Amino acid sequence: MLQNPPAEPGMAEEEVDTPALLVDLDALEHNLDRMAAFCTKAGIRLRPHAKTHKSPVIAHWQARRGAVGQCVQKVGEAEILAWAGVPDILITNEIVSPRKLARVAALSRMTNIALCADDAGVVDLIEAAAEAASCRLTVLVEMDVGTNRAGVGSAASAVALAQRIAGSRALVFGGVQAYHGGAQHLRDGDARRAAIHDVAEAARGVVDDLRAKGIACPAVTGAGTGTFEWEAASGVFTELQAGSYVFMDADYGRNRPAPEFRQSLFVAATVMSAARGGVAVVDCGHKGIAIDSGLPLVHERPGVTYASASDEHGQLVCADGTQLSIGERLRLVPGHCDPTVDRYDWYVGVRAGWVETVWPVAARGMMA
Amino acid sequence: MLQNPPAEPGMAEEEVDTPALLVDLDALEHNLDRMAAFCTKAGIRLRPHAKTHKSPVIAHWQARRGAVGQCVQKVGEAEILAWAGVPDILITNEIVSPRKLARVAALSRMTNIALCADDAGVVDLIEAAAEAASCRLTVLVEMDVGTNRAGVGSAASAVALAQRIAGSRALVFGGVQAYHGGAQHLRDGDARRAAIHDVAEAARGVVDDLRAKGIACPAVTGAGTGTFEWEAASGVFTELQAGSYVFMDADYGRNRPAPEFRQSLFVAATVMSAARGGVAVVDCGHKGIAIDSGLPLVHERPGVTYASASDEHGQLVCADGTQLSIGERLRLVPGHCDPTVDRYDWYVGVRAGWVETVWPVAARGMMA
Q1: Could you tell me if A331 lies within 8 Å of chain B, comparing CB atoms?
Q2: Does B220 share its domain with B263?
Q3: Which of A21, B111, B232, B334 is the most buried (most CB within 10 A)?
Q4: Exposure letters A228-258 (e unless 16+ CB within 10 A, then b)
Q5: Model confidence, pTM
Q6: Smallest Cβ distance to B51: which of A76, A311, A365?
Q7: What is the ipTM metric for this complex?
Q8: Are residues B123 and B263 in the same domain?
Q9: Which residues of A touch B287 (CB under 8 A)?
């Protein structure tokens, strides 16, 4: 079952059923324009990450502003984008199941698609899928550049894996993925800059080693909303994967306090209980807003704090002199945008207090 | 978009696409039987909470074992159950939006439905909806019995609100809801028992005060998987709302270590990277398994720990001598069952290593 759309175009924002995922379209367009202008000026390609928005609509808006394609984490996300006409997709992740790889091979007939590997065994699996489907698949080598998650751990391993890929008739070597997820959320800008300096040097080393072996590296891809200026300035990255900049969230807001990007994503909530003084309850708990990176903020309502989340309830604490009443509506700023979006089937696009458009979170829940 | 079903009946469990929500049907049936037997012996009604399972299939299995109806938190959940033939539904929550109340009034024509109030303003709204739809709605008074969330704060307020409801021609007074959510998760059994003793005394006081004013209290409803024995033993509760017992989770497993209920819910995951010694990465992060009540446990794989969750990745740490290989499959035990279920569109029911049935999480995402 899909959720019912919580609104229709033409409604006042006050009439939107809650909880609902609101997008302030002015702020969204500001963010899209701002990042496009940055990339043009920096002379770097933008391949935004669709794990944030999960929406072909936003992917096409990004493409119209110059984005070269999209990143995804999951095959199901790639399918949703490919079926909606996104022409170039990078799966920034290892795919190891033969059934999933067969789906990737099938997609390669309708879109340019690439994926990552960090192990010769994974390359074997991708090669077998390409051979079975009589297609060629593009594979990037993922480097572990500090997140300590997936990725090869040394330049030598990266080069060996690239040689393995480049030597296969069924595969194309697509370059290097060097994404430092952990660095995005470091609070201190200098710490982020230093982390990305190390990332860029590691990537540069691999590119140089590959060149010495006669292998061109067509792409070095990475970066996120927390660090993209430094990847862009490094001279080694060829494209940026930032995703969260379209929406922002409370966590990124603490990292980038300047209004370079505006908060465009909100969850609309309604006060459903105010039985006790100083406390109120809204109809949105952590089933409706992600709390993995901290609790939501209450937008433009000084003195009101979202103090705790249970599954379906959010408890608000009101400072002295602040009163909330039953039925009152609030905008919540998610602590973390990506998993919040993934809770909803619909975006409600608002502008100047009115619902302008409602469109699906088309890749919501596409985890496989 | 719905997720594709990750399996078909007749498949081996090893073939299920991951991440997937697995239900061990033997364990589920054990849990359903066990709770039904408890309630029969204790002479108390069971109205399980569907916020856990979000599934008419499981609701009907509970009804066949004697459950008198279902609890829900949201109008959208009530609709899914009512449309599937569940004949008696209690919304254990305040509903304050006129549009939502109109939906409740509409449902009252196809099922017995009741909802909660903790404020005269809420009763006014429910009454208006009932009058507009020319129906009568059943309203329970929610007491705050220690969670400090919704609910009236005193016996006097509870009695006054019950009188207000009982005095309305459009409403029926349905009783008292006295659910202590916070008590469910206290680690110490004696602390849970003590908390519920206080809850029961508070409820008894309200029932006695109502009787003194000539108002019968048709139901005292509450309890969860952490405390239900004590509500049942109190002599004042008439029905139990436990929900999580059907599945259990890592958090409840720490509270109820005896194998009274078995873990029946798992997330199947696949190792997608094992590039570095002692670490492996599975294809399920916190978009696929809830971490609000702690990280998942790795089922029956000693030496392997789920050490951290990012959006789409789970990092496993392997003790010395333990090795995971790419493509290897694991069962994860969710830290918290309810929000984990809400991430998925499909249950995959397995028995003895085979997929027996696949059915929808029909009320997935029904937050409004």
Answers
A1: no
A2: no
A3: B334
A4: bbbbbebebbbbbbbbbbbbbbbbbbebeee
A5: 0.96
A6: A311
A7: 0.95
A8: no
A9: 338-339, 342, 367
